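Continued from yesterday's entry.
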Amino acid sequence: MTDDIAYSYTAHVDGLEEENKLLRDSLDNQEKEIEILRKQLDRYQKPPLVACEVKTLMDNHVLVKLPNGNEFLVENVSEDKLGAGDTVLAEQKNLTIVRKINKINKFDAEKFVIIEKPNTEWEIIGGLQEQERDIKEVIELPLLKPELFKKVGIDPPKGILLHGPPGTGKTLLAKAVAASTNSTFIEITGSELVQKFIGEGAKLVKEIFQIARDKSPSIIFIDEIDAIASMRIDVGTSGEREVQRTFMQLLAEIDGFKPLDDVKIIGCTNRKDILDAAVTRPGRLDRLIHVPVPNEEGRKEIFKIHTKDMKTAKIDVDNVIKSMEGFSGAEIKAVATEAGYKAIRENRAKITEEDLLESIDKVRQEELEDGDYVRMFG
């Protein structure tokens, strides 16, 4: 009987010790969780640091510029060696500098521009032999054979302006010369630059040109350049002032290049008549290349390029070409594509002259409707 009591007591004690051990383990886990939560709470309660730009060093004080443009003379407790232009973190309340950080790439402009290595060949461009020759002389030759210009003692243009109606092949020309020189092609649209980056356009322009330097040889292609380079008028609204700041930064960047640097600028516009003369004066985009709507011979070349892989029935090519009077290269391509779709819808492999003529009417009607829309709402 005594042995049973002793056994029962021992088992009870063992159970209590096991329970006590479980409680201690649970308490340890809860204390660890509390410590983690306390650290998280401290982190959440810690005030954020402000990124500033160092302007000038003054003994133990530093003149810094905040992102909003305000400047303050503050103390420096950082052990980092500072210099003008450095980016630092400062306490939000009194702006005391805490530490130096790597320069912040505020825009990361590569996200907002198209950067590529085009493979466009000259052979796919029709009816623009004169323009092709000019762009080769101005862009291709200085990039491939700069020694020729040094030997002769002349400076090539820093860039060119391609102007003419929409769809005539201006972008194709720019991509073809980038491909022939193995250059990085950096494309940005002037209207997007103004609309998306109000307040920051000038800084973005500066960064784009720095990317061009880093990725040289390179070609900066500015489509719709008239959006930022139109004739200057009395500046009223903040938006107009921002466009002017962006334009002035563009001119400054163009002036900062040497003629034989491995960076060229190609501007593109449908409205040369509204451009500010400052952008086309000597030393800037001073070679103007007109890219017109193709003539009959040009239309024939472009038509052959876009239909060379198509199976066609007997076609009076001259009649088709005459029916496309006034068409741009883009519209001729649209005609060929539309004719192909018509054949597919009718389960045919060959394109007929009727397909092409109907497609011409359709494309012309679409252009007329687009023109009416622009006149009403543009």
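--- second protein ---
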Amino acid sequence: MNGTQVSVPLPVRLRFGHAAVQYLADSIGVDLLHIKGAAVDPSLRPNGYAGSDVDVLVRPEHVARLDLALRQHGWRLYTTFASGSPFGHAQTYTHDAWGYIDIHRFFPGIRVAPTDAFERLWSERHEALIAGVGCAVPSVSAQSLLLILNAARSPRSARHDLAAVWSSAPDDRRAAIESLVAELRAELAFAAAVGGLESHQGEREYRLWKVVSAGGSRSEEWWARVRAAPTLGDALRLVARAPLVNVDHLAARLGRRPTRLEVVAEFFVRPARAVGEAWVGLQRRGARR
């Protein structure tokens, strides 16, 4: 051996990542569904796009068990549920061989209880071979809905999935998707993706989906999160966290874990940045009038 390293193409590594997490889940009795990326039915992604990481939706009662097993098998925590997104739905891990994996404890936009939602999707699962390993994936209609809800959280310019999974979908599949939208109470996020969001202005989570689908400042996002909080206690906890530095995001920006001095500096920079974002937002609103 001369120590030569071989670069593995990302799509290949991602497929092995799916297989690795499935093998681990099978060994500890964890139920999970592979979603997005390489797990998507070819009819929904004709170009074969495999994504940039591995995404799995885990039975909520099994999340802690999978978290422990991942840490014991070479996966390192990259971002937590609290710091990963405005919805707190996923935790990201990284592995030297397999890259990144997102563990979803629920899927943003689905408003039935996470356990009930998982069971509904699990009940119509089928198996897909990924890197030679049998992986459970949702039905094609459910995959379509998840891609649509995911598109609602993407910039409008990046919503490539909508054409294949909704705009160009056959009538029977569109009907199946709409039925699933109603069953999973996903109407608000669905409207944020395909149109009609303004008809939901009276709903608690409207402003949050408005920000994530149409764009907005960090301060607008935080206030939307506070308004979307299901209880007063949740809202107060968000208000208390708002001034704190998101160390995971800062590390991603720097490409390494920040020093204490850098965290302190970021704490003082954040208010000035928020004022600047608010000023830009006011100017934009004034220009549209």
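Strands lie at 32-35, 54-58, 76-79, 90-95, 99-104, 126-130, 133-137. The chain has a mean pLDDT of 83. Will compare against the first tomorrow.
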